[in-house]
């Protein structure tokens, strides 16, 4: 998933079952709890290192009863030992994303009147487009994005190119990374 995955340096690698997680990580650092799934939905999640913000990661399971086959894994906050490709993690700035992409990119804040608002990023054919393609996705949330900017009119009223002064002056950085996994194929 990232350059250092082979060296096991904090790169997220997909577990297949909660028993694997509990075996790899000491049981005292694994907590199962309810999580807000948006729109009033509650999902069960497994949290690794719940009391350590730099190591904390939240896993949602496709089969929550058996805690098998992860659907997604998320990190939130200001800093983390977990990262995606090119070292992209919590605190990565807009400028650093643009540098990793090799060119400017566009992002739009999409708020459709629900609590499922999110950022959409178009990498404009840069390096990160290739790295984030394939089965499964990595989503990045930028902190500093206004939830209701001045003149709010609808779903796509806020966004812009990463290299414009208006966007650069917002000093945006990543405060959430979510890995969404494709279904496992049966042998």
Structural description of this entry:
The chain is built from 4 helices and 9 strands. It has 187 residues and is mainly β. Strands 1-2-3-4-9-7 form a 6-stranded antiparallel beta sheet. A 3-stranded antiparallel beta sheet has the order 6-5-8, with no helix packed on it. Strand 2 and strand 3 form a beta hairpin.
Fold blueprint:
Blueprint: H1 18-24, E1 30-38, E2 41-48, E3 57-63, E4 68-76, H2 94-101, E5 106-110, E6 118-122, H3 127-131, E7 137-143, E8 158-161, H4 165-168, E9 173-180
Antiparallel strand pairs: 1-2, 2-3, 3-4, 4-9, 5-6, 5-8, 7-9
SSE order:
HEEEEHEEHEEHE
Helix tally equals: 4
How many beta-strand runs? 9
Q: How many structural domains does the protein architecture include? A: 2
Write down the Rg.
Answer: 17 Å
Described by the principal axes of the CA atoms, the overall outline is globular
Describe the largest sheet.
6 strands, antiparallel
Beta-strand percent range: 25-35%
Unreliable residue stretches: 1-12
Quick summary of this structure?
The protein is mainly beta and 187 residues long. The chain has two domains: 57 residues, no CATH class; 96 residues, no CATH class.
What would the keywords be for this entry?
six-stranded antiparallel β-sheet, 187 residues, 33% strand, mainly beta, 4 helices, globular, three-stranded antiparallel β-sheet
């Amino acid at each position: 998933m990232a350059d250092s995955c082979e060296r096991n340096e904090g790169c997220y690698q997909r577990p297949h079952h909660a028993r694997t997680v509990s075996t790899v990580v000491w049981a005292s650092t694994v907590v199962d709890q309810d999580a807000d799934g948006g729109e009033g939905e509650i999902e069960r999640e497994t949290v690794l290192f719940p009391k350590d913000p730099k190591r904390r990661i939240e896993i949602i399971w496709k089969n929550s009863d058996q805690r098998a086959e992860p659907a997604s894994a998320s990190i939130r906050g200001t800093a983390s030992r977990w990262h995606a490709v090119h070292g992209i993690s919590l605190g990565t700035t807009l400028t650093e994303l643009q540098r990793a992409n090799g060119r400017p990119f566009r992002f739009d804040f999409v708020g459709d009147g629900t609590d499922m608002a999110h950022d959409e990023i178009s990498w404009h054919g840069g390096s990160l487009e290739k790295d984030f393609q394939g089965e499964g996705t990595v989503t990045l949330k930028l902190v500093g994005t206004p939830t209701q900017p001045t003149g709010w009119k609808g779903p796509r009223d806020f966004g812009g190119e990463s290299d414009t002064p208006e966007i650069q002056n917002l000093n945006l950085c990543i405060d959430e990374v979510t890995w969404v996994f494709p279904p496992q194929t049966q042998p």
